[in-house]
Amino acid sequence: MANRFWIVFGDIHERITAVERIDKLALADGVFLSGDLTNLGSRESAGRIVSAVTKINPRVYAQIGNMDTPAVERVLTEQGINAHGRVVDLGDGVCLAAVGFSTPTPFGTPSEVDESQICQWTHDVLERAGAFAHVILMVHTPPRGDVVDKLPSGAHVGSPGVRALIEKYQPAIVVTGHIHEGVGEEKIGRSHVLNPGAFAQGGYVRIDETPSGLVAVLRSVV
């Protein structure tokens, strides 16, 4: 495997200025935005977020989160970078499988769908990703877990269905978000699951291609 790497972050909520401080961002083989680019955003706000990243590194794939509107998704589609529901061939047997939106929240945000829809999308991308040796799953809704879906109250609000699918398909790396307080990492079987928290607070994930497979680490610009 070549010496390649990718950067993943999300929960930007229109606070993108720290992107200039991501280490070696311009050299990354891809930049993946996991959702919540905006706060109920317009086409203009979506375009501003995407352009702030692409001016540093044009190799971008992105998906919407629950706080993004249909207008945001249209911008991603028009720019040819919408990864939601797709399996993107990254070469050398590596792929990105991507699922945006979120399960229902107490806040009635614009891009929520029910658990069964999130699970159907996740099943479909992981099924197609089976043709690849090394799978990166970028899913805005976290799996039910010990760390990555934990609220300050101690409640776990991740998706049981997404967890079951990770247990079944065992993607090498899972990067999630949505729950800003769930910063951290854990294992689900062999899958390494990471939640970098909100990029508004500087969190991101770097994934490196190594001779033994994909290795992911939590990073921060602060």
Give a quick rundown of the structure:
The protein is an alpha/beta fold and 222 residues long. It has helices at residues 43-54, 70-78, 115-128, 160-169, and strands at residues 5-9, 30-33, 60-62, 87-91, 94-99, 134-139, 173-175, 184-188, 191-195, 203-210, 213-220.
- Name the structural class: alpha/beta
Helix segment tally? 4
Cα-to-Cα separation, first versus last residue: 31 Å
Oligomer: single chain
Task: Provide the fold topology.
Blueprint: E1 5-9, E2 30-33, H1 43-54, E3 60-62, H2 70-78, E4 87-91, E5 94-99, H3 115-128, E6 134-139, H4 160-169, E7 173-175, E8 184-188, E9 191-195, E10 203-210, E11 213-220
Parallel strand pairs: 1-2, 2-3, 5-6, 6-7, 7-9
Antiparallel strand pairs: 1-10, 4-5, 8-9, 10-11
Helix pairs in contact: 1-2, 3-4
Could you explain the architecture of this structure?
This protein is α/β, with parallel strands linked by helices and 222 residues long. It is built from four helices and eleven strands; from the N terminus they run ββαβαββαβαβββββ. It has helices spanning 43-54, 70-78, 115-128, 160-169; strands spanning 5-9, 30-33, 60-62, 87-91, 94-99, 134-139, 173-175, 184-188, 191-195, 203-210, 213-220. It has a six-stranded mixed beta sheet with strand order 4-5-6-7-9-8. A hairpin with a 2-residue loop joins β10 and β11. α1 packs across α2 (70-78) and α3 (115-128) runs parallel beside α4. The model has no long low-confidence stretch (mean pLDDT 97).
